[in-house]
Design goal:
Order of helices and strands: EHEEHEHEHEHEHEHH
CATH architecture: Alpha-Beta Barrel
Number of domains: 1
Number of helices: 8
Strand content: 15-25%
Number of strands: 8
Helix content: 40-55%
Largest sheet: 8 strands, parallel
């Protein structure tokens, strides 16, 4: 049975409902190998990255699941995404996500472009109507584009999948977990990928190989 890797999850350190330990426990029960806790940050609350890093050390030491400290830069001015990403990395974020131009929130135009041009960014989350130019830059800079399991953000999954596959950009499928019901099994993720129009031959790559490669490149697995 394939194990899940989910690199976009939120705890009570931002707007999630669960403690980091409960996220890890629920993910472990659903056969996750690794998760990243990527709470929302801007310039006002970067200290939460350090707090998450410290609290998950005990989880990793005692349970058979890799829990990775991260951050999701959210609704920040596009001009400072690079600065915030660098600061998050210095504070201990191993995975840096940028909250992309989803169809259901008023994310400032230019966020996608700023994110894919930032060397500190690993994943551009739910990027909405991403352009071919942005996807090509993401490919060049080895930044993954996200297929989202989250209600609302998932509305553009078909477009994101189509554009990414055409230009050869890496895709990952994350939940953007905020509540217990958001955490999904590998089998459910497989169905969501099919629903996004991703051909079956690419699904293992998107669900396992691409996120695994991100973690291996950082020496995390």
């Amino acid at each position: 049975m394939n194990k899940r890797i989910d690199l976009h999850m939120h705890s009570i350190f931002s707007d999630g409902e669960l403690l980091p330990s409960e996220i890890a426990r629920r993910a472990s029960v659903l056969n996750h190998e690794a998760i990243a806790i990527t709470d929302h940050v801007d310039a006002s609350n970067m200290d939460c990255v350090r707090r998450i890093r410290d609290v998950i050390l005990d989880i990793k030491s005692n349970w058979n699941i890799e829990v990775i400290p991260g951050a999701e830069i959210t609704h920040a001015p596009a001009e400072i995404i690079g600065k915030l990403a660098s600061k998050a990395r210095k504070l201990g974020a191993e995975i840096v996500v940028v909250h992309g131009e989803t169809l259901v929130e008023p994310v400032i135009e230019g966020t996608n472009m700023a994110a894919v041009n930032c060397p500190e960014v690993d994943i551009l989350a739910h990027p909405g109507l991403i352009t071919y130019e942005e996807a090509e830059i993401a490919k060049e800079n080895d930044i993954a584009l996200e297929i989202s399991a989250r209600k609302g953000h998932s509305l553009s999954n078909g477009h994101v999948a189509k554009v990414a596959l055409e230009v050869g950009a890496n895709l990952v499928l994350d939940t953007d977990t905020h509540s217990p019901d958001d955490i999904i099994s590998y089998e459910t993720a497989h169905k969501l990928a099919l629903g996004a129009g991703i051909p079956a031959k690419y699904i293992l790559e998107i669900l396992r190989d691409n996120p695994l490669e991100i973690l291996k490149n950082k020496g995390l697995l």
